[in-house]
Amino acid sequence: MKKLLLIAAMAALTLGASAEGYKIEKVWTLNAPSIFTTTNDVRQGFGMNGKFYIHNKADQLVYEIDENGLTGVTFEGGTNCGISRDEAGNIIVSNAGFGSTAWIEATFKVINPQTGEVNLYTVPEESGLTGRCDFFGFAKGNLLEDGELYLTAGTPDNSIFTDGIARILITGGEVNIDNCYLATCDGLNTNTSTVINYYSDINGEDALLFAYRSGHPSKLLADGDDFTRKALVLPNKGSCNGVYPIVWDGKELYIYPTLPNYFDGWAVSEAGTVDEPATPIVTVPATVSANPNGIQCNWLNAEADADGITIYQYVPGGQISVYRLTKEESTATNVYILGEVNDKGWAANDGVLMDYDAENNVYTATVTLDGRGESGENYFSFTTELANDNDDGGWAYIQPFRFGAVSEGDFWFSNNMSGWPLGLTYENAQAFRVMGGEYKLTLSLENMKLTIENLSVSHLRGDVNNSGDVKIDDVTALIDYLLSGNDSNIIWINADCNMSGDIKIDDVTSLIDFLLSGAWNN
């Protein structure tokens, strides 16, 4: 993977739309090797560890491909197209007949690509359990030892159970006939192109993704020996095979082909509903103008690690590509609120981390002040660095990073200042002294300004006296302030009626004009 990641770092490309905070790069891409041009013979493939594995039923070989093309490594395959892997990285290939004869026996081969160890498994016809083997999903466990494979169940005449899933259990390297059975699940829509992928979901529960070619997939969870179904709606999903589930960045994500149908576009998204559709975090548009294959496949699978997801795409008749999905590194500095907020006390190594609003380049936090001081007040200031790396946890460690009010002493914040920009400084920083309540803090490091909004105070332009509406009383309150300088009965941000950034006689004129006309002039 080191080589793969190095290439990714060198080959960043613009690839359509990504949600804020995410980045998609194409690591490498190849046209399908010429031996794979007959797409009926090479219908399925997958990637892992930076390489692809494609099963060619024409010569019954599994081919390994990397960014330079065919590696020269092959494995003895089977008589059908199906190929996938289990959780241990073993390759699974179909050794059943092709087409309708695939129903007669569920026959498959498991290969360890590192050691070459091979097991051939057959579920006897007399067991009554048959499964379609020309496509495979990802299997649970280690199928060379103990694991489970899931197939769409059917009958020798090629009819399909609408609610059947063949559960094929491997125990000690043998087919556990006594515990293989046909599980049921109401509401499934199966067809000959259904693929069932095993995965561990966002809650750590065993789950199956039941994906058929022409519709939205379903998530299946255990219900005793059978399953219950949850419908998933994926935005702009196309009618191709290839949906793959993965958990990353605290999300249960699905990688899937998109419209236009049968091309090579794809997306990554959480699932939504018809009423509440999701928004993809990545959308990669199609690169072709015509369907590259007649079998409607666009196979996608992925591997997650601490830094991102490596996404593999095999389009039969088209290309073989590797992508890398990562989170964009934030250029924002951490800002912590120090002091008596959200039940915290003064400590150099503890604080409330503010959220960064990249669009507006400000930091925000909604905090609770419990009024623990003698006069019902709390204190706080700010720092860009906590003392976590300092053995003493002392204030001296964060002194260059701490900032607060521009004031000779602690700065008393009163409700009339709610929403009004206040100055910040790193030099002789003083704490803000604020009465208990719920407040929203918005801080700009760019111009060192802080707004403290008391959430119980109305922020209504012209509502000078905070009565909740704008009346002639507000004109009186504004004139009283301008004559006396006593600001205890006004809200500064509301009194700035002409939005000039200060309060002058012009604001009285603007307020009177508003009361007469019902509209602000600016």
Q: What's a quick, concise take on this entry?
A:
This protein is mainly beta and 522 residues long. It has four domains: 1-34 and 232-328, no CATH class; 78-231, no CATH class; 336-454, Immunoglobulin-like; 472-517, no CATH class.
Number of domains: 4
What is the C-alpha radius of gyration, as a whole number of Å?
A: 32 Å
Largest sheet: 11 strands, mixed
**Unreliable spans:** 1-14
Shape: elongated
Distance between the termini: 59 Å
Q: Give the percentage of residues in beta strands.
A: 35-45%
- The counted number of beta strands is 37
Structural class: mainly beta
Work out the helix count. 5
Mean pLDDT rating:
87
The helical percent reads under 10%
